[in-house]
Design brief:
The protein is α+β, with helices and mostly antiparallel strands. It has helices spanning 65-83, 94-112, 160-166, 212-215, 220-227, 233-246; strands at 9-10, 24-33, 43-48, 53-60, 120-121, 123-128, 133-138, 142-147, 150-153, 195-199, 206-210, 253-262.
Amino acid sequence: MPGMQPQRWGAAMSDARIIPAERFLLRAVGRTDVGAQRTQNEDAMYYDDFLGVYVVCDGMGGHASGQVASDIAIRTIVHSLKTGDPVPPPGVDPLVVAMKAANAAVYQRGLTDPACHGMGTTAVGLRFEENVVHVCHCGDSRAYLLRNGMLSQLTRDHSLRNLYQDRPDLVGTLGPATSNVIIRAVGLDATVEIEHNAMTPEHNDVYLLCCDGLNDLVDDWMIREIMTSGDSLEVVSENLIRAANNNGGTDNITVVLAQTFVDPLWVPAHAYPQQVQGY
């Protein structure tokens, strides 16, 4: 299927679907780079403007298992969202269900394949509806929003450092809180909690999904400078990766940029005339 390959999935969907009435048009680009010091890329990404879904995963594990984990996670998330399997319980966002399904798939592979034992992956994703964007994440891959020239971080890292900030009584009990120690990831345990928030998109928003290979090396102020340069999404994504590599490129670097535009032809679904009986 076009676009269905690990690490660089720009989806061109061929499945027949009912096209919903949408308030926003979406346009995205994605870029991934092995970095300046790694020989293997363990990141994976997926972006699909028609489905309104954008995901970045950063795999971890020995040898090639990090790449396996991120690939399984992406494939499982996409499959779940396209098929509706597992069926989301009432009040639970489909992207949350999809990420939990990915957790089960990665965890099961780790149990059955000795080469993949202990592997896992972060996951951060967006799912757009008519006038809502759902932001889901697990681990320390991030979502940012550029709106009216201001950059804000939409996710909070599931890191040991943040845990110690929330629970001072635990400081030091789980080891030193270095920036790359995370306390939650997809596939490490049989179950996982996915953090979910929802917000209302606006015209000309630009959402950034990235792994820590970007934000560990490029400060937020510089990310904002690059994103407000007026360049195209393609150029912005390349410049973000270039900035990380110029600062050492110590890890794989992946970015997905998604921009929203108000559709001038949008009409709410309830405003459509009812089908005439007998036709």
